[in-house]
Specification:
The protein has a six-stranded mixed β-sheet with strand order 4-5-3-2-6-7. About 13% of the residues have low confidence. Strand 11, helix 10 and strand 12 form a beta-alpha-beta unit. With 864 residues, the protein is an alpha/beta fold. The protein is built from 28 helices and 33 strands. The protein is globular.
Length: 864
């Protein structure tokens, strides 16, 4: 037997159909509120507010106030005065929150917590557990929720307000903003940073995991993925209709900005948040024309990309902003409107002025550690509790010669002591899992070893992950030192897996070096992920076959696949800069395509010759590689939407450098230890076989309470329980229950606290089964333990039929469903099916029909 820990979801409770189940719950709330001695106020929420009042008109005369967040322009609702939370005259009210969603309830409770006794629909299990429909019980996953999520609050009189809009890695501390905060502090700027991305992340998952909707739907009816922040869901951020799901947060932000009137609005721009950034910039420009719009961020690392992707800027900082943003903001606050500055684009730049790069920081130690005083650390956790913090020991790429890559920037490194000082500070703040958030962690293996030596010398207990480049100096001793310093897993940016493709990509190493690195890492106890790039210009079918075979041959040393990418034509890569040299052709005019698609040319608009490789062939090779490696036993993941795009030949503009399979690099590598794997995270800590976001197979059919917790049995387990009770009796079944279902509970006899009506039903079920088989009809002693008049939602599934209470009270009758039929029994009359069907009950006390409507109609006719 297996039980699942459950939680009550008010959001799932109401069907908004004015049906019997809804009315039973609404009336239970009404009856409870009417027992309160203090005056009653209702706090208006979403659709539940109107539903509550429309179906309970008798409660309207008892309501003294209706509380609304913004009462401007509103006088009364149903002749009840409207006030704001700030206007309640004293704190001796009973305040009922007319809302069923978890996050709005959280906000409302904070507003009125000190103003009286606050009651919410979450009280239903305490006052009317038997009335709650089974649909309202959802798995109680082990997550970080409920979590206090900050409001969208923008302070007045700010020189600069910086917004980080969705979507970046949802639970990841934005290290770039930490460095930006340092630069602004050095410049003496009065600033505020607001991370809308983390607010959106927690609002979304609060709804998903506490409300438990069957599915989350965008305004246009599109289904949202379980976690839009996973890399395998990245395509939704290119779907404007689905991005509109987050419109309430967007509008809150716009209202807060207009009210605060900052002098400068800063936007961190990248491809996946462009809708948010554009709408905010355009609204602010319309309402606050004097506010300067300053852009920067990942998609502003080349001027051509920044101009095209986000034309709504007044000023745009290109590339690393550490040395340019502070002086620029100082001049803007002084009333200047400078133009033609190195490293900065301006609306006032001369059309003939050629862009000049700004200064790039060479001494990374001088920049200081990222500053996070502007945010709350506890927010940056995955919904299942784990936290991985980013750290940077270097910038750029030491090699910078891979022809397909656009991360070709000069490599610079912090000194080992400076970096480990920051690591130790983060450790003291409560972090212990860190990811090297950089392109080339071992750009200089000796510096990385020196960092490890410093960690070991200080006896710091940390867990580290990161991505390395294949290197001859990556020896067994090198990896042993990484492991001793706290490294738990690694990713290798291998990319090319045949001698020919390695040369085509200009990777600078050989297959032999790749295999030596993988074996050395494996021997040192460090699981390794790998990257694969397919479809490079010049690649042959023989290269693809050799790639697959070489990866297969090294499977014992490969933990799993991290990235598998069909090659993309990315801005800034050698292939982009010199396409003709590498046989790259375009479907259309090259200059026009570069103008229209400044980030990456869509796959169907370019191809290479000698040999011919177009997007169809790249897709075929990608899918072939995926299928063969999956069949060979490699863990690949579920990037279904992207694979379908490739298989169908649809255009995919592409967020470049995706982790296509499963989790992102951070999630793949930041998994906690478990049996059978040196490094796997505790993702699903719920009790039972379900994973987070999924429900027990077949749904829950029986709900009970034990020691203050709610538990449920799926349909199959309820059938098994009934079958075991029927066949074996209490002596045999009790050890099964105690060991299999409730072994962790201190008092098994407290497991079932059922409503007496449910026991009567089960007795009748037992009696009928016993009569059919000729066995004794005596009830096992175990069921007598259930007669404690608590509450029950019971549904026994027997060969597709059901057996449960439909309504506790309907015009003086109780309604049951037994198998496929419905029964109405006057309250107070025992439910003895044999006696009822034999006509031994008084007239008018028992009704039987094929449908619920038929039975309720009989009851109405009888009552009338």
């Amino acid at each position: 037997m297996k039980a699942y820990r459950l939680r009550f979801s008010p959001f799932r409770c109401f069907a908004y159909d004015a049906g019997l189940e809804d009315l039973a719950c609404l009336r239970a709330l009404r009856d409870f509120l009417m027992t309160q001695s203090a005056p009653l106020a209702l706090y208006q929420g979403g659709r539940f507010f109107d539903y509550f009042l429309d179906n309970l008109p008798e409660i309207v005369p008892l309501v003294k106030y209706i509380i609304v967040d913004d009462p401007a322009g509103k006088g009364k609702i149903k002749d009840i005065p409207i006030i704001s939370p700030r206007e309640i005259p004293h704190n001796n009210y009973v305040i009922f929150l007319c809302e069923t969603e978890a996050f709005p309830l959280q906000r409302m409770e904070k507003q009125v917590a000190s103003l009286g006794t606050v009651i919410t629909p979450r009280i239903l299990p305490e006052i009317a557990g038997a009335a709650i429909p089974l649909r309202a019980w959802i798995p109680a996953y082990h997550t970080i929720y409920p979590l206090e999520i900050p409001e969208v609050e923008i302070f007045p009189d700010q020189d600069l307000v910086i917004l980080n809009c969705p979507a970046l890695e949802g639970d990841f501390l934005p290290i770039g903003l930490g460095y930006l905060a340092n630069a602004l502090k050095r410049a003496g700027v009065h600033y505020q940073i607001l991370d809308l991305n983390i607010l959106a992340y927690h609002r979304y998952h609060t709804h998903r995991l506490l409300d438990g909707p069957a599915r989350i739907v965008a305004p246009n009816g599109s289904i949202m993925p379980p976690d839009p922040w996973r890399n395998d869901s990245v395509l939704i951020w290119q779907d404007q209709s689905r991005v509109q799901y987050f419109s309430p947060l967007l509008q809150e932000t716009i209202r807060a900005l207009i009210k605060a009137k900052p002098k400068i609005l800063g936007l961190s721009v990248q491809e996946c948040n462009i809708t948010f950034c554009r709408e905010i910039a355009q609204a602010v420009r319309q309402e606050l024309p004097d506010t300067i719009i300053l852009a920067g961020g990942y998609s502003c690392y080349y001027p051509e990309i920044g101009r095209s992707l986000f034309p709504d800027y007044d000023y745009m900082v290109i590339g690393e902003a550490d040395l340019t943003v502070g002086p620029l903001v100082q001049r803007l606050l002084a009333g200047e409107r400078p133009a033609n500055l190195p490293g900065i684009l301006s609306r006032d730049d001369s059309p003939s002025q050629e862009y000049v790069p700004g200064p790039r920081p060479e001494d990374l130690d001088a920049l200081g550690s990222p500053d996070y005083d502007w945010t709350a650390w506890e927010l940056y956790r995955h919904y299942n509790h784990y936290q991985c913090l980013p750290v940077i020991a270097s910038r750029g790429c030491k090699w910078s010669r891979c022809k397909f890559c656009n991360e070709r920037f000069p490599w610079r490194s912090r000194t080992p002591k400076n970096f480990v000082d920051e690591l130790e500070w983060l450790l003291n703040k409560g972090g212990d899992l860190f990811m090297f958030y950089e392109s080339d962690m071992n750009g200089d293996p000796e510096i990385l070893e020196a960092i490890c030596d410093e960690i070991i010398k200080r006896n710091l207990v940390v867990r580290l992950v990161g991505q390395l480049r294949i290197n001859k100096r990556n020896t067994r001793d090198f990896f042993e030192k990484l492991r001793r310093a706290g490294f738990k897993a690694l990713r290798f940016g291998v990319d090319g897996w045949s001698p020919h493709t390695l040369r085509l990509m200009n990777k600078g190493y050989t297959i032999r070096t790749i295999e030596e690195n993988l074996r050395n890492s494996f021997a040192a106890g460090l699981p390794a992920e790998i990257n694969v790039v397919i479809g490079v210009p010049g690649e042959t079918e023989a290269d693809v076959a050799e790639t697959i075979e070489i990866i297969k041959a090294n499977k014992p040393y490969i933990w799993r696949l991290g990235n598998v990418n069909p090659i993309m034509l990315l801005h800034g890569s050698v292939f982009w800069q010199e396409p003709e040299k590498y046989g790259i052709k375009f479907v259309g005019n090259k200059e026009e395509l570069y103008r229209r698609f400044p980030l990456a040319i869509p796959a169907d608009l370019w191809y290479s010759v000698d040999p011919l490789i177009d997007h169809h062939l790249r897709s075929e090779r990608f899918l072939r590689l995926v299928r063969e490696l999956r069949e060979y036993g490699f863990e690949i993941g579920e990037m279904v939407e992207y694979i379908e795009h490739l298989a169908s030949g649809q255009r995919y503009g592409g967020n470049y450098q995706l982790a296509l399979f499963g989790h992102s690099q951070k999630e793949h590598l930041s998994e906690a230890e478990s049996a059978g794997s040196p490094f796997s995270k505790p993702e699903d800590w719920d009790w039972g076989d379900t994973k987070i976001g999924q429900e027990p197979e077949g749904g829950i059919s029986l709900v009970f309470q034990a020691q203050g917790e709610s538990y449920g049995l799926p349909a199959g387990e309820v059938k098994r329980l009934a079958h075991l009770l029927y066949r074996n009796g209490p002596k045999e079944i009790w050890p099964v229950l105690a060991k299999g279902m409730i072994g962790k509970l201190a008092h098994p006899q407290l497991l079932y606290r059922y409503l007496e009506q449910g026991i009567t039903l089960l007795k009748s079920f037992w009696r009928n089964r016993a009569r059919e088989s000729g066995k004794s009809d005596s009830l096992p002693d175990l069921l007598e333990l259930m007669l404690e008049n608590n509450w029950l939602r019971l549904k026994i599934d027997t060969s597709g039929t059901s057996f449960h209470v439909v309504a506790e009270s309907f015009q003086g009758y109780k309604i049951f469903q037994l198998y496929r039929d419905f029964y109405g029994i006057r309250q107070g009359i025992p439910f003895d099916l044999e006696a009822l069907e034999a006509g031994k009950s008084p007239p008018g006390t028992f009704f039987h029909g094929q449908t619920l409507a038929e039975v309720t109609g009989m009851i109405k006719n009888r009552v009338n």
